[in-house]
Each structure stands twice: as structure tokens, then as C-alpha cells.
Amino acid sequence: MRVMSVVGNRPQFVKAAPLCRALRRGCEEILVHSGQHYDPELADLFFDELGIPEPDHALGIGPGTPLQQLAGMLTALEDLIGRERPDVVLVYGDTTTTLAGALAAAKTATPLAHVEAGLRSFDKTMPEEQNRVVTDHLSGLLLCPTAAAVANLAREGVTGGVHMVGDVMFDAALMFREAALARPGAAAFGLEPGGYELVTVHRAAATDTPEALRALVEVLAAIPGPAVFPVHPRTRAKLEAAGLWEAASGLPNVRLVPPVGYLDFTALLVTARAVVTDSGGVQKEAFFHRVPCVTLRDTTEWVETVEAGVNTLTGMDARAVGRALDGARFPDDPPELYGDGDASGRIAALVAEFAGR
Ligand code: UDP
């Protein structure tokens, strides 16, 4: 059985870490790195510290608009699928790389499996939402992390090949927690455990216009602090281009630092007082590590965290962020939301069965 896994972004590397191990117990995996994330601190570092196998193929797509990247990936993947003839193409999440893998599989009539299927924010202006919807509707095996994801698919008439398996990011969180706790974490930034906020921002909606970036700087100013903000290269580039980098990096309450690796990030997260983010993965990781989360968006696909009272949606509204952080606490008895830590084992078994059909 030959499974071609297509990855290309920071969150996909995190998800691939537990799943590559599980897949390789029973299948031959051909790992493809699209090159969508190419900065060493968003890519190479993750392969090294999470023990992800060396990619069999690196497409080396690099910078460009999402459409330019998509076009480059499609051409390269068509050729690669033709040469490698996998039984299944497997894609993760909701990025340009995901969409490219899905379209290339569909157009070469190769069965497609989607990890993190069924998630919806119901905001079709989000590039990620577009990618999710198209990918799900092309997939023959839909691997859902949550009951809400299964229900979303049913509402769209997608019921065949749908399985609730749990969340691979939870597997990763359990797998690497101990290694993360051995990192210096807060101490490396002169912060007290339990006494700081951890911030991440990278989505298009927060960074693509000067107005959005000005709102972001206002939000940063409203965080009580001390806070640490590992800045995504895209966010930094956009702040610099809008002439707002000095305003952001001069704030007394928030320290802007380069992005950190998964283990250092997890170490920072575990002892944060609260997380402030627009990331999908970080909302869940806050839940895994029992840290309250404030999400700088109006919608989320991780609705169960909001229902459980551990995640507050504020949009990019400085006052709402201040209020949410004032009241942020994590409940003593949170529900179990994302499976038992073996989503990867379940996915590997389902993929092997799907490939053998
Ligand atoms: N992350 C990291 N270093 C950082 C910021 C985030 O390792 O400086 C990790 C984080 O732990 C999570 C993943 O990156 O596993 C989330 O990626 P991102 O926010 O880029 O993407 P999203 O989840 O929003 O798709």
C-alpha cells in the first residue's frame, strides 16, 4: 500500500509528526513537502525536533500569491502522482497545499483522504474555509476530529467514508509534552509561569490591509501584559510594509520575538496565563494544556471550545479583548473534546483499509 502524504505548512508538520509514525507501521509512505512554508523556523526546525522523516520529494514552491503557489503545486503534483502511482493521496487541514493535493488527486483519479475533515467556520471569505469545503467534497475518506465536523458534513450531504477519529494535534500534544516541559519556556523570556499572555497572529484577515494591521496594534496595546508574541514572518512583513512594525515592537506590554519551534512554543503555552490568537491549532492546544484562550476572530471551526467556556471570540476588538482577558479562567472540570490521543492509530488503520479497496 502506497500513501502519498502532502504537507507544506507549520501546522501540517505538527500533525504529520504522530501520523507519519503510525502510517509507516503498515504502509509505504511517500512524503511530499510542497515548500509553501520555506523559512527555516517554520519548516526545517519542525522536521528536526519532531522527528518527521525526510521528505521523499520537495516541490520547492516558495513565495508567491496563493494562486501562484497553487498553480505551481498542481503541475508538480500531477507529474509526481503519475510517476509514483500512490494508492491514496492524504492531505491535512485547510491550506493551499491541502487544496493542491486534493485537486491533483481528483484530476488523476487517485483516491483522496482528508485529515481534519468537516471543519467549518461558515465564513466563506476565509481562504481556509474555501480549501476545506472543496477538499471535503473531493475526498473518499473523511477523517473528522469532532462530532461537530461529522454533523457539518452530513448537512452538506457528505456521509460516505466519514469517520470520527479524534484530533491528531492532541496526539502530538501528548507525544511531545514531556520534551516541551524540559525546555526553558517562560524563563527564557524573563517571564513568570502563570504571569503572562502568549500571542500569535497570522491569518489573512488580520494582516492583509493597513486597517486590519492598525486594529491589530490596538489589540496588542490592550493586552495587560507582560506578553510574548512570536511573530509569524508573514505578519512581520505586513507590519513592516504598512509602516507599523515600530509601533508594534515599541509597545511596553508585549515583547515581539521571532517564531519559535513547537517544543519551545508548547513550553511557553503550558505556563501562560492566557493565550491570544487567531490560529486554529493554537486554540485547540490552549485547551489541551488547560489555558484559557481569547480568539481574535468572529468565528471558529473549533466551536466546542467556545461551548465549553474556555475560548472567547472577540474579533479584532481591543475593548473586547481586554474584557475577555479580565475574566479568563479555565474550568476545573473541562469536557473531553478531541479523542483519546490515538487519532493517528485510527487514521492509519482506516487509510490502509481505504488504500486496499
Ligand atoms: N507554533 C509554533 N511556533 C510558533 C507559533 C506556533 O510551533 O511560534 C505551532 C503551534 O504550536 C501549532 C501550530 O504552530 O501547533 C499552529 O500553526 P499556525 O498557527 O501557523 O496555523 P493554524 O493552526 O492557524 O492553521
CATH superfamily of the largest domain: Glycogen Phosphorylase B
Q: What is the arithmetic mean of pLDDT?
A: 96
* CA-CA gap between termini: 10 Å
What's the domain count? Answer: 2
Tell me the CATH architecture of the largest domain: 3-Layer(aba) Sandwich
What is the element string, with H for helices and E for strands? EHEHEHEHEHEHEHEHHEHHEHEHEHEHH
CATH topology of the largest domain: Rossmann fold
Shape, principal axes of CA atoms:
globular
**What is the total tally of β strands?**
13
- How many helical stretches? 16
Structural class: alpha/beta
Low-confidence stretches: none
Helical fraction? 40-55%
Strand content bin:
5-15%
CATH level-1 class of the largest domain: Alpha Beta
Query: What is the strand arrangement across the widest sheet?
Result: 3-2-1-4-5-6-7
Estimated radius of gyration: 20 Å
* Distinct ligands: uridine-5'-diphosphate
Largest sheet: 7 strands, parallel
